[in-house]
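subagent[fold] <- orchestrator: predict structure for attached chain, return tokens only, no commentary.
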Amino acid sequence: MNEFLEQLRKQVPGLLISTEAAYIAQACTDWRKRYCTTALAVLEPMTTRQVQDIVKTCDAFNVAISTQGGNTGLVGGAVPVADTDAEKRPHVVLKTGRIREFLKLDESNLTLTASVGYTLHEIQEYALAHGFLFPLSLASEGTCTLGGNLASNAGGVAVLRYGNTRELCLGLEYVNAQGDLCGDLRGLRKNNTGYDLRHLLIGSEGTLGVITTACMKVYPAPQSRCVAWLNVDNIQTAVDALGFVQGRLFGELSSYEWMNVNAIDVVQTHFPARAPTCPGAVDHVLAEFTSLGSETTLREQVTKTLEALLEELPGVRNIAMAQNGREIEAFWALRENISEAQAKEGLNVKHDVACAVSQLPTFHDMALNDIAEHGVDVRPVLFGHLGDGNLHFNLSAPKGNDSSEFLKQHQNLLNTLVHETILRCGGTISAEHGIGQLKAELLREITSDSNYSAFVAIKKAMDPKNLLNPGKLVLI
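subagent[fold] -> orchestrator:
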């Protein structure tokens, strides 16, 4: 493939091309180190024009492309699949982190146009410096990029109020499989002129095109913020409390996170933070409220609502309000450090599932009962964005057991039980993490023939040579 690399250098002046083995290995290893593959080279363009020239050259030489942002994904969507090595089909990793041509705000239109190489945190800070909020918020926001957020339709902790990435995007530009620039960045909220290609690209995991720029919604930055910690009997109480609060403060409630007792125990084992507790309470809820009004007014509204909740819903045992910014950060640290704390204890069986909020308690109880009936001893470390129906249903080995052996013995059965249960409850096997290569076969199994045929037809129409991220999402 020396001819291919020589042609790249000729066609794309200034392109950073790395063939160094250690750097390729790093780019071809996913965040969880589940997939460790290889590639011909790592390409790092700085402009949309360079992306176009890369894709055209790859098309001419039949070289496959894995597009990668911050490489924080959890389903192997941004690294090559194992069977696309140099002996079978040449493959390159196209890293988009250096594409930083645009970052501008349209205050009147409440939009921000940005290149995909900016990290989520950088975009948040840019908006905030101008008095606006870009509400997408994830644990990996310091590393993940806008491109990855769009490609995976990222969710996070503020979906309840602002929606996921799809709902925040008003337009995008992308390079198609032939190297042509498509899409638009007009930032229109109303436009009924043909198929909306934006929605095909969002969540497509790099299989239909390489997104280079996007026009995103922003909002006036909140002027006040209140965070409360609830100790509750169980997940059903957490759901009931959500309905109560939404009925009174629907416009102010921005996040509603649920954690079971094991999740908090794991965090407190590995981090110094301590959660408010109450005898008899098993589960925990973190609720955040924001407003454009004064903090005094918001705090009065929240306090009144939560006092009424405590009186009317017996399963709510205790409520603690953060008194200052330091306590707000301490509450959020308990929630955001769960995944890292769990990683410190070894491997676990992760599930990113969702269903209607009303069905969450049913799913929770059915899944745990099914696991117990099959005789598998697990330590459920459960948490998630209860307000939008998304749970991270993670199953760890019992304390003192070897986590690797636990996965070897039980992972397949646990995956089957959890996935079958969430589907019986009318839910989905992937709420916000995507499909990637981890769940590609499963997606084909659970999708109706007519729907999957439509997926394949779209993929073949937009990428007839299967150059873009082959082996991910839709298998052809």
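orchestrator: received. Logging for downstream: The mean pLDDT is 96. Residues 284 and 366 are 20 Å apart (CA to CA).
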